[in-house]
Write a structure and sequence with these properties.
This protein has helices at about 15-20, 35-40, 90-100, 130-155; strands at about 5-10, 20-30, 45, 50-55, 55-60, 65, 80-85, 105-115, 115-125. With about 160 residues, it is of the alpha+beta class. The strands form 2 sheets. Strands 1-8-9-2-7-5-4 form a 7-stranded antiparallel β-sheet. About 25% of the residues are buried.
Length: about 160
């Protein structure tokens, strides 16, 4: 059986640049109807957001879901804290790991799978300036090698 198809809504590419991703977790999100409709139209942004543990629950803070265009007075507030749906055991394990120095929960991707909105959370450790420069240098070297191979194969 094949894996369910993912329709990407929003991706946080900046997170991969600013953090070392140690572990990934898939979480559901408690949303209102107009939020889901807006996300299906592609109106989501998780670039400046982060996840936070509060009273044994995990919340997505700072995510921006644009108001639904055909919405009425019951339209949602674009930037609000949204509860993430995880098993109690997963929340406890994440809490223990986040308590370690330098670890944080960063949203990596927001996507639709089987008609449900899911968020990929990354347990991450912040990169130093040197690490960021090293990542950029590795990426540039990889691109140059790919260009050289492509150029050599085209002859």
């Amino acid at each position: 059986m094949s894996a369910p198809a993912r329709k990407m809504i929003a991706e946080n590419r900046k997170a991969r640049h600013d953090f070392h991703i140690v572990e990934r977790v898939e979480a559901g999100i408690a949303l209102t109807g107009t939020e889901v409709k807006s996300l299906r139209d592609g109106g989501g942004n998780i670039r400046e957001s982060y996840a936070q543990l509060r009273n044994g629950e995990v919340f997505l803070v700072g995510a921006n879901i644009a108001p639904y265009r055909q919405g009425n007075l019951q339209n949602h507030e674009p930037v609000r804290d949204r509860k993430l749906l995880l098993h109690r055991r997963e929340i406890h394990q994440l809490g223990v790991k986040v308590a370690q120095r330098g670890m944080t929960l960063v949203p990596l991707a927001l996507y639709l799978t089987n008609g449900k909105v899911k968020l990929e959370l990354g347990l991450a450790r912040g990169k130093e300036g040197v690490d960021k420069r090293h990542s950029i240098a590795e990426r540039d070297a990889r691109r140059q090698m790919e260009r050289a191979v492509k150029e050599r194969n085209s002859r």
